[in-house]
Design brief:
The protein is α/β, with parallel strands linked by helices. Helix content is 47%, strand content 18%. The chain folds into two domains: 163 residues, D-Maltodextrin-Binding Protein, domain 2, CATH 3.40.190.170; 130 residues, D-Maltodextrin-Binding Protein, domain 2 (3-Layer(aba) Sandwich), CATH 3.40.190.170. The protein binds beta-D-galactopyranuronic acid. This is C4-dicarboxylate ABC transporter.
């Protein structure tokens, strides 16, 4: 039987060992995933984050972000984060919908009333709840990034939902997104982001949906020039760390990383608002035909079955209610 003294010694040794695995002096190299090119607001936000962390850790935590999906497409990157072969990343909630159900709530169509409303929700207790669920799935969110409103763009003009009927619309890997597109009367085709341009070109799909900056940076406007401002979802994004990496950090490093991520999010949000305007101008100059949807009522009404399927489970219904009640 262990004596009390021996037990104390064993506990102290365990604590020392834990401390050793995260000794402050040990240099660490972190690999980061990003889907966007280096000049995109997300990329600049991530660069700001890694600079702040390098400064504040005296170069002990050295992070390198591989921009432009160099480490693979989104679905692979999510798996790699959960396995710890990618240490940090910036993800849109849509790709996480099938893995962490509460992310579906933040993806639901026509839910957020404004950018300010969305910031209050994600930066508050509701955002924390979703973040906790993500952390339990191996992805620890540190800060929420903006991704604006997503709209439809197609190879033929779309003014009312009926115009979409029978069209093949690209979606991310998400059952919720498949159901949103179905509810609009179109056919959903899940495809990686990096395959959308050629799929539009070859006729595999007739359209996709995204925000102004992605429509512009990917040059999708060259092959699907009709953009209808449906603004059907304001699904946000997170800057996150693999939980395998996170668990090995001491509290001081965790606090430092969180603060740096939040500062980078402030910067990313400023860049985002500006880039939305610039991208809109660029695509119009490049030949995009914009249909301004002024009455979103008919689009919104079609989303009833989506809410029935995804927002009636008591936990989801409660989150939706709390989001709606958030001023
Ligand atoms: C972009 C988003 C990416 C990815 C992409 C897509 O707007 O920033 O993370 O979700 O859309 O549609 O695959």
């Amino acid at each position: 039987m262990m004596t009390r003294r021996l037990m104390n010694w064993a506990a102290a040794a365990a604590v020392a060992l834990l401390g050793w695995t995260s000794t402050p002096s040990q240099a660490q190299e972190w690999r980061g995933w990003n889907i966007h090119p280096p000049d995109y607001p997300v990329s600049k936000g991530m660069d700001r984050f890694t600079e702040l962390v390098a400064q504040r850790s005296n170069n002990r935590i050295r992070m390198k972000t591989f921009h432009s999906a160099q480490l693979g497409q989104q679905d692979e990157a999510i798996q790699q984060m959960r396995l710890g072969s990618i240490d940090f990343a910036e993800f849109n909630m849509s790709g996480l919908n099938n893995i962490v159900p509460s992310t579906q709530v933040l993806t639901l169509p026509f839910l957020f009333r404004s950018v300010a409303h969305q910031h209050t929700v994600v930066d508050g207790p509701i955002g924390d709840t979703v973040a906790e669920d993500l952390a339990n799935a191996g992805i620890v969110p540190l800060a929420w990034y903006d991704a604006g409103a997503r709209s439809m763009y197609t190879i033929r003009p779309v003014k009312v939902p009926a115009d979409l009927r029978g069209m093949k619309i690209r979606v991310q890997t998400s059952d919720l997104w498949i159901d949103i597109i179905k509810a609009l009367g179109a056919n959903a085709t899940p495809l990686p982001f990096g395959e959308v341009y050629t799929s539009l070109q070859s006729g595999v799909i007739d359209g996709a949906e995204n925000n102004w900056p992605s429509y512009e940076s990917t040059r999708h406007f060259e092959v699907a020039k009709y953009f209808a401002t449906t603004e059907h979802s304001n699904v946000p994004e997170v800057l996150a760390v693999s939980s395998l990496r996170w668990r090995r950090l001491n509290q001081a490093d965790k606090d430092m990383l969180r603060a740096a991520a939040r500062e980078s999010a402030q910067y990313q949000r400023q860049l985002w608002a500006e880039r939305e305007r610039v991208s809109r101008e660029k695509v119009i100059a490049g030949g995009a035909q914009v249909t301004d949807i002024t009455d979103r009522g008919p689009w919104q009404q079609l989303m009833e079955p989506v809410y029935k399927k995804y927002a009636t489970d008591p936990r989801m219904a409660d989150l939706v209610r709390r989001i709606r009640e958030t001023p």
